[in-house]
Amino acid sequence: MNKILDDILEECRQYTQQGEVASYIPELAKADRNELGIYVCTNVGDLYAGDWDRKFTIQSIVKPVFLMLAAIDNGIAYIKEHVGVEATGKPFNAIDYAEPLLLKEHINPMVNIGAIAVCDLIKADNDEHRLHRLLEFTKSITGNPDIEIDMDVYNSEKETGNKNRALAYLLKNSGMIKGSVDSLLDVYFAMCSVKMNCQDLARIGQLLANRGFDVHSKTQVIPKEDAVFLNAVLTTSGMYDGSGEFATTVGIPAKSGVGGGIMANCPHKMGIGIYSPALDTKGNSVAGIKMLEKLSKKWELSIF
Ligand code: DON
Questions:
Q1: Shortest-distance atom of ligand 1 to CA 279
Q2: Cα atoms in the Cβ-side hemisphere of radius 13 Å centred on 208
Q3: Region 149-167 average pLDDT
Q4: pTM of this prediction?
């Protein structure tokens, strides 16, 4: 427990009543909008408040996980040959790609189409192996061997994920998916349905804050240049078409998910995990952003 976090949490509780819990994946609509949690991992100890141990699905917070593993497998130069890094300024599931063929410059790894393309770059013998590698990697970056998939959310997204199917077929049409669209999407849906709590998210954030060095296992889990690359992408595009506003009010690398989580980090200082499931129209947690704004002001976290 921590007085500063407790106070921020109570000040922000009112915002849990704003926005809407995601319902386009029906199973996500069961979330309780009153829940609010925060966990902070600093290199000298952890702080937490509220419902930090509630488990929820990470959804788009898997996008940086895909990018990390794909960068480890292939190197950043190869990744940049396949996807762009410019912010799209569009919603996370935008499909308005006017070109007859997709241009990689327009595919950002933090939006759905780019994340599906990056998932295909992760080295594996087949998609079952790809999912296995991703789950093992997720366990290592969270330090949590019990990470598992929420099968109800996975089935719910699989049943309703036709927009993602359309995006994946656009990629396939442009030669950006090598194998089966269906089995690659299964990996995407399953990984979006990985369950975590705020501590798990904060641990990923802490790893990025320390440029890929895990202070718990005392090992370099991600190459330094990959961690720096990822934080740059998170800063410009991690909060979708809300990334510019977020940079001005919070000013740290972060990634949101429609499950209500936010994974953030303040370089060299701390990783932060947030949970509050009611979202703004851009798919970002309303109360979660408010808590980060207050924390950033209080502790002067902005990197700018
Ligand atoms: O593909 C989807 O639509 C979801 N599995 C993830 C989207 C998401 O989390 C957007 N984030 N704020």
A1: 12
A2: 29
A3: 97
A4: 0.97
